[in-house]
Amino acid sequence: METGPSVLDQWYFQLPNFVLAALMYTLLGRVLLGLIVGVDSPNYIWRFFCRITDPLVAVIAFFTPKVTAPVVVWLFGVVWLFWLRVALLSLYLLLGVFPRSG
Question: From CA 76, how far away is CA 70, in angstroms rounded?
Fold first, then answer.
């Protein structure tokens, strides 16, 4: 019985894609939670989202105008991470190293 390649055989694609997806969805969670709680909330879930995404938000804020509302900067981050994942997929397809099953 032959099986397809395992996820560990495709680490070069799966790991960066997973990290980018985790950041993207954590940032999206920060956007949604930011609509409910205040910016200075002591909520431990809010603090977790902020601690994980603050470095990315700092990079995005560098490229966006200073008058932009924080929630818009966070949404830009979600969009940029999505397109970064699409670019990663395109790069692997272009190089011919995209993991294939079977």
Answer: 10
Distance CA 25, CA 82 (A): 10
The answer for residues whose C-beta is within 8 angstroms of residue 61's C-beta and 6 or more apart is 68, 73
Residue 77: predicted pLDDT: 94
**Structural domains of the chain, count:** 1
Give the residue ranges of the chain where pLDDT is below 70: 1-7, 99-102
Residue 2 one-letter amino acid: E
**Is 102 among the domain residues?**
no
Residue 98 resides in a domain: no
Taking the alpha carbons at both ends of the chain, their separation in whole angstroms is 12
Q: What is the DSSP secondary-structure string of 32-92?
A: HHHTTS-TT---HHHHHHHHHHHHHHHHHHHHS-TTS-HHHHHHHHHHHHHHHHHHHHHHH
